[in-house]
């Protein structure tokens, strides 16, 4: 039953689609309905609430700032509905588990979990490479691999080890700029670097470089693979995790006169999921593999 004063989900999902797609036409396509239906839903919602929710202009449409609270409500409802659908598996190890990862580990984790699916074919996987930190408290994912802890009491963090990092460059860069392959921190300022840049700002690894004197970043990216390719192309020096680079020929680890970063790794999940068999299965499989890899 719809509570008094709360807009119906059918109207909120239209507002959410309009916020995401910035036009009535695109929102209708995303929802599988006509432009007139989208407009009618928005008009009805504005009439029910007694205030404008959408700014219409020749340049497109946008949600009014004081309507963003309704967009946030729609996102929470959407995440909750997805979580309910994911929990609908009938057999113990059947149903969907959504895993959020940094792109540096997507391939080995996917290989691992595909092996798990051969043992449990009823298990369905959603594996997402995301630069942003997903909100586990809102069930945007079931399990996330991350380097820091959430402040939410609803999220459990299981420490599995620490990832060692190194400074890497292509032979072409070493030949051109760094004969011998030894790098002193006193020389960081005159070298080219490629650095990780996420949301809302630089990652700790890039901050570490800056703190040790790096000034010239010729390329920044939120993708491990972009940084890896830039380093392979001789664009500059990159801070990369040792496990991720081990299987990549064409890069040389540089000798440095400073201690390199060790980044903690946690498997995080919503407290309510700890007794869901399929989530526990994936969580324990990842835990064992990561502890072995990070010894």
Give a brief description.
It contains 10 helices and 13 strands.
Which structural traits does this protein have?
D-Maltodextrin-Binding Protein, domain 2; alpha/beta; 13 strands; transcription; 9-stranded mixed β-sheet; WH-like_DNA-bd_sf; 295 residues; Arc Repressor Mutant, subunit A
Strand content: 15-25%
CATH superfamily of the largest domain: Periplasmic binding protein-like II
Coarse morphology = globular
Residue-averaged pLDDT, rounded? Answer: 86
Gyration radius from CA atoms, angstroms? 24 Å
What share of the residues lie within helices? Answer: 25-40%
| Oligomer classification | single chain
CATH topology of the largest domain: D-Maltodextrin-Binding Protein, domain 2
User: End-to-end distance, in Å?
Assistant: 53 Å
Q: Counting H and I runs of at least 4 residues, what is the number of helices?
A: 10
Please provide the ordered H/E string of secondary-structure elements: HHHEEHEHEEEHEEHEHEHEEEH
Protein name: LysR family transcriptional regulator
Domain HTH lysR-type: 7-64
Pfam family, one: HTH_1
Family: Belongs to the LysR transcriptional regulatory family.
3D structure, described in words:
With 295 residues, the protein is of the alpha/beta class. It folds into three domains: 72 residues, Winged helix-like DNA-binding domain superfamily/Winged helix DNA-binding domain (Arc Repressor Mutant, subunit A, Orthogonal Bundle), CATH 1.10.10.10; 103 residues, D-Maltodextrin-Binding Protein, domain 2; 101 residues, Periplasmic binding protein-like II (D-Maltodextrin-Binding Protein, domain 2), CATH 3.40.190.10. It contains ten helices and 13 strands. The strands form three sheets. Strands 3, 4, 5, 6, 8, 9, 10, 11 and 13 form a nine-stranded mixed beta sheet that branches. A two-stranded antiparallel ribbon has the order 1-2. The longest helix has 19 residues. The chain is globular. This is LysR family transcriptional regulator. Keywords: DNA-binding, Transcription, Transcription regulation.
């Amino acid at each position: 039953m719809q509570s008094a004063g709360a807009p119906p989900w059918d109207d909120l999902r239209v507002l959410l689609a309009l916020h995401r797609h910035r036009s009535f036409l695109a929102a209708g396509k995303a929802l599988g309905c006509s432009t007139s239906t989208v407009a009618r839903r928005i008009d009805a919602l504005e009439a029910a609430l007694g205030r404008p929710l959408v700014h219409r202009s020749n340049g497109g449409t946008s949600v009014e700032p004081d309507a963003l609270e309704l967009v946030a409500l729609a996102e929470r409802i959407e995440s909750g509905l997805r979580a309910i659908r994911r929990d609908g598996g009938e057999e113990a190890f059947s149903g969907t588990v959504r895993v959020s990862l940094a792109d540096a580990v997507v391939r080995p984790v996917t290989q691992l979990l595909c092996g798990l699916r051969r043992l449990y074919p009823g298990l369905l996987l959603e594996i997402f490479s995301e630069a942003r930190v997903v909100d586990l408290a809102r069930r945007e994912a079931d399990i996330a691999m991350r380097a820091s802890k959430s402040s939410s009491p609803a999220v459990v963090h299981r420490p599995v080890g620490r990832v060692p990092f190194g400074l890497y460059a292509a032979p072409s860069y070493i030949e051109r700029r760094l004969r011998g392959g030894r790098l002193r921190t006193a020389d960081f300022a005159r070298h080219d670097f490629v650095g990780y840049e996420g949301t809302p700002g630089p990652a700790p690894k890039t901050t570490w470089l800056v703190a040790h004197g790096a000034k010239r970043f010729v390329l920044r990216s939120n993708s491990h693979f972009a940084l890896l390719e830039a380093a392979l192309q001789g664009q500059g020096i990159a801070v990369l995790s040792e496990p991720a680079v081990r299987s990549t020929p064409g890069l040389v680890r540089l000798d440095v006169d400073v201690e390199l970063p060790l980044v903690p790794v946690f498997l995080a999940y919503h407290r309510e999921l700890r007794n869901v068999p399929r989530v526990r299965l994936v969580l324990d499989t990842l835990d064992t593999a990561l502890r072995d890899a990070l010894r």
